[in-house]
Amino acid sequence: QVQLVESGGGSVQPGGSLRLSCAAPGSIFRASVKGWYRQAPGKERELVAALTPAATTTYADSVKGRFTISRDNAKNTVYLQMTNLKPEDTAVYYCKLRVISGNDYWGQGTQVTVSS
Fold it and tell me: What is the dihedral sign for C-alpha 9, 12, 14, 18?
């Protein structure tokens, strides 16, 4: 069973920063499309950022200029660096890897709370 292990969530004040990490098995990491999603209470899960094997990135308009998705192939880990956090960024954040076969693998989710 494929497991993605997330870490790095927590509580910060508005304007603060956090870095989320998602470690995946090496067998699926490099060729996969990597994404970070979030789900706030009462809302649908939404794409925050994505990174293709060719290093093309996509960001939700609401996080452009504040969030950065990156990867470390040696560590089989994808990151989401979040800066200038706002209360509306509060959500459970999930990483997802989509492999060549089309299967999706999800992390367990990590809570991010932005509050003064």
Answer: negative
